[in-house]
Amino acid sequence: MNVSRLASDQYPVVVKHHPVNDGELNPKHSIKRFIFVTSLWCWMNHIDKPTAYAMEELNDRFKLVMRSKALLFPAAMSKMVWGKIDLATIHTRYRQRKIRIEDAVSELMRCAPSWVRYDSDELLLRDVEAIFRSVKTV
Q: How sure is the predictor about 54, in pLDDT bands with cuts at 50, 70 and 90?
């Protein structure tokens, strides 16, 4: 059984299989992915105080973890991770079709902390594109 756990058995973080990959993600990448996706999605959706409903919605869309309560911590970290990056400009240029998604991801990752990078560029690209498409304005 390929499972990742954080903190304690009381609050296990069981990372789901991601459909982009043929096999399971490396647990290290799975944890980074759910931190990256959750924090970026929350920051772009202006979610300062994440609710259980918002985390369920996010988890339903991205299939990040078995229990959506596990997303509350990375949601709370969103300002720390993305607060100094001008996501609004990158997102607006993408929405107005001034830049391609590949360029938006490159720009985003150039500004992002190095520790948020995970798995392959292809998976990052798909996740960021899905986030950008789900957000109307930043």
A: very high
Give Cα separations from 94 to 72, 87, 90, 100, 128 (angstroms): 28, 11, 6, 6, 11
Contact yes or no for 14/67 (Cβ under 8 A): yes
DSSP 8-state secondary structure symbol assigned to residue 65: B
Six-digit token string for 45? 């959706």
3-class SS of residue 75:
helix
Q: Kindly state the DSSP code that residue 67 receives in the 8-state scheme.
A: S
- Entry pTM: 0.76
108 Cβ contact partners less than 8 Å away, ≥ 6 residues apart: 85, 87, 90, 128
pLDDT tens digits, one per residue of 22-40: 344 456 568 889 899 999 9
Please tell me the distance from the alpha carbon of residue 88 to that of residue 111, in angstroms, as a whole number.
Answer: 13
Given a contact cutoff of 8 angstroms between Cβ atoms, the answer to whether 118 and 20 are in contact is no
Q: What is the pLDDT of residue 79?
A: 92
